[in-house]
Design goal:
With 329 residues, this protein is an alpha/beta fold. The protein contains 9 helices and 6 strands, in the order ααβββαββαβααααα. It has a domain at 8-213. It has helices spanning 8-14, 22-33, 83-97, 148-154, 181-191, 203-209, 217-306, 311-318, 322-328; strands at residues 39-43, 58-65, 70-76, 111-117, 128-131, 165-170. It has a 6-stranded mixed β-sheet, sandwiched between helices.
Length: 329
């Protein structure tokens, strides 16, 4: 079946920047953040700039809502294993850029970071993760709260509400069963399909606005090129991974052979050392036995001489030479 709806990242790039379509973005964010989101304006970000090429594996969009909060939406298509820190960099950069010189820290705007990723990031079974900043007592286990004076500045908020919040959507982990209105949006993110019965805020308008058939010929060609670029980037990553995997396996075999060779040489060296040690012990024992035997013969010779036997008789009796007998006289 031919795909009828464009991808959300392409919509971020070409459609959602239009104020007439803010209600689509508001619908998605309202379901995700569980709040009635109203977008006032889009702020300068990478997706709000015109690029010479559409070959991007990451798209972002920065919005300000009616509460003067900032919302950063990022779509990451290609595997990026340090993306968790990329999220930190993105939020930190926006916080700094929106703090004017001389401004009090109390004026720092609340920031929501929404990351939509199409690769397996981290280890976890869920498709949706929410990250906040809290301070927990190391000894008492209590949660740090705002004091009375701080509440006069910030209102009746919890400490974590002052800090950026992270909303991580692992699209490929979604099971394709939309059990609530938020999951209707996740279903669309994964399948580029919106069912007639979906009731999530803004989603039916998205179905209308994201219809590929309503595109101009030039827009369809641009979108097709964008999809081809995504496929190409994925193939390049897979090829690089495959080559790296093969090279890694070859290196593993090489290391295994080296270990096997080292173990064999170590075993041979140990066997040789044991053999030399055994031969040395045998030689010492043999020399000791011969020395004891020689001493015994000499003792017999001495006793025979004391009994008055001749040197020749003693030599014959003890099995010694005449020269050996003469040495003990």
């Amino acid at each position: 079946m031919q795909q009828r709806l464009i991808r959300f990242d392409w919509a971020m790039k070409r459609l959602l920047r239009n104020k007439a379509n803010f209600d689509i973005l508001e619908g998605f964010l309202s379901e995700l953040l569980e709040d009635d989101i109203v977008i006032l304006q889009l702020l300068e970000s990478e997706s709000n700039r015109e690029h010479k090429t559409d070959k991007q594996n990451r798209l972002d969009l920065l919005a300000e809502n009616a509460k003067k909060e900032l919302i950063l939406i990022e779509v990451q298509n290609e595997d990026e294993q340090d993306y968790l820190l990329r999220m930190l960099y993105g939020t930190s950069k926006i916080v700094v850029e929106n703090l004017e010189i001389g401004m009090s820290y109390s004026k720092i705007k609340k920031l929501h970071s929404v990351s939509i990723v199409y690769f397996d990031l981290g280890q976890g079974e869920d498709y949706l993760y929410h990250g906040t900043t809290n301070f927990v007592g190391k000894n008492k286990g209590d949660l740090l709260k705002l004091n009375a004076r701080q509440k006069q500045i910030f209102g009746d908020k919890k400490v974590y509400e002052l800090y950026p919040e992270y909303h991580l959507i692992k699209v490929n982990s979604f099971d394709n069963i939309a059990k609530n209105t938020l999951e209707e949006w996740i279903y669309f993110l994964k399948n580029e399909e919106i069912r007639p019965e979906f009731k999530a805020k803004g989603i039916q308008k998205a179905k209308k606005e994201f219809d590929i058939m309503d595109m101009s010929e030039a827009e369809r060609k641009a979108y097709k090129r964008y999809l081809e670029d995504l496929h190409y980037a994925a193939s390049m990553h897979e090829s690089s991974f495959g080559i790296g995997f093969i090279e890694g396996k070859a290196e593993e075999r090489k290391q295994a052979e080296a270990r096997e060779k080292a173990l064999k040489e170590e075993a041979e060296a140990r066997e040789k050392a044991l053999k030399e040690e055994a031969e040395a012990r045998e030689k010492v024992l043999k020399e000791k036995a011969e020395a004891e035997k020689e001493a015994f013969k000499l003792e017999i010779a001495r006793k025979c001489l004391q009994m008055g036997m001749s040197i020749e008789q003693v030599a014959q009796m003890a099995g010694l030479t005449v020269e050996q007998i003469l040495k003990i006289i």
